[in-house]
Design brief:
Blueprint lengths: L4 E5 L3 H14 L11 E5 L6 H5 L8 H12 L1
Parallel strand pairs: 1-2
Length: 74
């Protein structure tokens, strides 16, 4: 059974793209059809995690992250 990779990304869109490129580059696939299926949830509007943890912003990103995780796990 081929498994699918789910990525909760977009909180740094370039980092998400870089991660996806690395997964593809490191894959032993010999053709397009052999690559790992991926679902990428790229939503950059999730509140800033670092600022929340530092107490600079009050908006907790947890609820948006949880929503994204649920979307990926369906």
């Amino acid at each position: 059974m081929l498994r699918t990779l789910g990525v909760l990304g977009g909180m740094g869109p370039l980092a998400t793209a870089s991660f996806m490129n690395q997964v593809i580059a490191l894959s032993p696939a010999k053709n397009d059809q052999e690559h790992i299926p991926m679902f990428i949830r790229n939503i950059p509007q999730i509140p800033d995690r670092t600022k929340f943890l530092m107490g600079i912003e009050d908006e907790n990103p947890f609820f948006e992250l949880k929503k994204g995780f649920k979307e990926l796990s369906n």
